[in-house]
């Protein structure tokens, strides 16, 4: 290969072609070489990048090949090498589709969002939220109050544009509506230009605006065209509460007063769970996994008046989830406010906890639920456990079979064995009947899968890289589809691929990207 030529891997069908080309010869010459290698005519050939920092979308003649990044260069070719016989029903080829149709089919890398001045906090959050299908569909179908209508309309438009594009979208309309409705996001930095913002604060603002959508049409669209019953909604009255909302049961008890002071229970709404992060040298509490951090965030102490004691006392607070959503957000409490009384130009700074907090690609919330919800989730969980136990038992019996005689003895029962088996069946039926009679009624939450056991699958992560929330950089990591090992990294307008194992490394402990907002979907 001469100093002027480059090599590119072209993937077409199940084949990979290594083509050596001269960047100065232009796109037309490259496509001619692709045609010679694959047989795909230039007019039908569509080259899409599989390497970061290459061209956006489909390669066009205006692209300067001399600006290609360092190797490796990998591209995906779409196009047929032979013209088919015209069928009775016209066949539509992928290369004949418009860019919007190609994007909808998920061919190639999805589109990113252009950074419009320190808007990585917004871009990364939007890329995660737009993959919550129910929320996205409800947003498109519902109207809201005049104050939030423009914000929600532009938000929905941005989602639609990204889904139907092969190139990065500049969300100009949404950014304008966001800064108009929430002026804090128009704050200027000390060096001029827009200041960096907190992704969680943006998410809170987005949820506040979207909660103004409460029409039946929106809720129907969010749940596949069927409006959940009031019982299933469990008090959820708008799009956010129905798709991301948690109903929290908070119980206060006064240990000092003992049984003389009755517990106080109240209910409140939330849009996310919080993982409290504590630990480090000299700390009594060491949190290293999200489950422990969530549990810590659901307990605490408050000072409150005790009627029995006739004075203020310390009460123990315990919160549990009494309504589960189809989509769940978990915030890693990585930022905290540190006062700086010695500083002359500011009162404090927002610092970051770098501690490593491990998480998996599934989250079981059973232990964080109220007794009512636990009882509902317990039925399918026990059923699943019984099925697994039965499978294990059968497997063990199969492994213990040593010869045909033993197998025959196992299969052929005596009359006594049959009588005993009947007795056991009768006892089992009775116990199952009692269990069925005692089975709880009600719903754990709207839109949850049948026989939902309280397990959520991770589908999106907003990561932060840097030492504090007022600087650094946000990036989104989004699963391509439910159960898939393929993920997309959305670094503003740059999009690349990775695997689940790469996402699970975003657990902190250094200066690299670490998870800040985790998004989950109820698992089938």
TrEMBL record:
It catalyses: Thiol-dependent hydrolysis of ester, thioester, amide, peptide and isopeptide bonds formed by the C-terminal Gly of ubiquitin (a 76-residue protein attached to proteins as an intracellular targeting signal). GO terms for biological process: proteasome-mediated ubiquitin-dependent protein catabolic process; protein deubiquitination; regulation of proteasomal protein catabolic process. Its EC number is 3.4.19.12. The keyword DNA-binding does not apply. It is an enzyme of class 3 (hydrolase). Residues 380-411 have a biased composition (Basic and acidic residues). One of its GO terms (molecular function) is proteasome binding. Residues 111-523 form the USP domain. Keywords: Hydrolase, Protease, Thiol protease, Ubl conjugation pathway. Residues 380-417 are annotated as: Disordered. Pfam families: UCH. It comes from the Eukaryota. InterPro entries: Papain-like_cys_pep_sf (IPR038765), Peptidase_C19_UCH (IPR001394), Ubiquitin-like_domsf (IPR029071), UBP14-like (IPR044635), USP (IPR028889), USP_CS (IPR018200). Belongs to the peptidase C19 family. This is Ubiquitin carboxyl-terminal hydrolase. It comes from Triparma strigata. The lineage of its organism: Eukaryota, Sar, Stramenopiles, Ochrophyta, Bolidophyceae.
């Amino acid at each position: 290969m001469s100093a002027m030529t480059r090599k590119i891997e072209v993937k077409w069908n199940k084949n990979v072609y290594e083509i050596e080309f001269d960047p100065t010869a232009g796109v037309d010459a490259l496509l001619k070489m692709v045609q010679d290698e694959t047989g795909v005519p230039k007019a039908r050939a569509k080259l899409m990048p599989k390497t970061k920092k290459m061209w956006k979308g489909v390669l066009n003649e205006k692209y300067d090949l001399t600006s290609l990044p360092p190797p490796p260069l990998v591209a995906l070719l779409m196009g047929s090498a032979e013209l088919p016989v015209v069928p009775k029903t016209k066949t539509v080829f992928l290369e004949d589709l418009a860019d919007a149709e190609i994007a909808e089919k998920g061919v190639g890398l999805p589109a990113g969002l252009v950074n419009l001045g320190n808007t990585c906090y917004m871009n990364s959050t939007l890329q995660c939220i737009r993959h919550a299908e129910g929320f996205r569909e409800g947003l498109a179908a519902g109207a809201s109050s005049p104050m939030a209508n423009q914000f929600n309309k532009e938000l929905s438009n941005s989602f639609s544009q990204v889904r139907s594009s092969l190139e990065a979208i500049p969300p100009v309309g949404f950014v304008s509506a966001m800064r108009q409705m929430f002026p804090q996001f128009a704050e200027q930095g000390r060096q001029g230009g827009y200041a960096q913002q907190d992704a969680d604060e943006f998410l809170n603002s987005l949820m506040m605006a979207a909660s103004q959508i409460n029409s039946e049409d929106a809720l129907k669209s969010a749940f596949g065209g069927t409006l959940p019953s009031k019982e299933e909604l469990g008090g959820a009255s708008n799009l956010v509460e129905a798709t991301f909302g948690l109903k929290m049961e908070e119980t206060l008890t006064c240990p000092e007063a003992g049984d003389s002071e009755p517990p106080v229970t109240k209910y409140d709404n939330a849009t996310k769970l919080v993982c409290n992060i504590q630990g480090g040298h000299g700390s009594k509490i060491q949190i290293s996994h999200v489950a422990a951090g969530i549990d810590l965030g659901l307990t605490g102490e408050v000072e409150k008046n005790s009627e029995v004691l006739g004075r203020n006392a310390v009460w123990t607070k315990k919160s549990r989830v009494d309504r589960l959503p189809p989509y769940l957000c978990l915030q890693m409490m990585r930022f905290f406010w540190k006062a700086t009384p010695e500083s002359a130009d500011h009162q404090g700074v927002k610092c970051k906890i770098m501690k490593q907090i491990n998480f998996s690609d599934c989250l079981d919330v059973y232990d964080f639920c109220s007794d009512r919800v636990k009882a509902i989730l317990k039925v399918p969980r026990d059923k699943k456990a019984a099925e697994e136990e039965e499978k294990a038992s059968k497997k063990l019996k199969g492994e213990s079979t040593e010869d045909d005689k033993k197998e025959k003895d196992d299969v052929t029962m005596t009359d006594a064995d049959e009588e005993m088996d009947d007795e056991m069946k009768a006892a089992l039926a009775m116990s199952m009947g009692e269990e069925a009679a005692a089975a709880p009624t009600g719903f754990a939450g709207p839109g949850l899968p049948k026989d939902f056991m309280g397990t959520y699958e991770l589908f999106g992560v907003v990561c932060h890289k840097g030492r504090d929330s007022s600087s650094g950089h946000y990036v989104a990591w989004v699963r391509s589809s439910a159960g898939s090992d393929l993920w997309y990294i959305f670094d503003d307008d740059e999009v690349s691929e990775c695997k689940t194992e790469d996402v699970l490394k975003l657990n902190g402990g250094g200066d690299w990207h670490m998870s800040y907002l985790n998004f989950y979907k109820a698992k089938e």
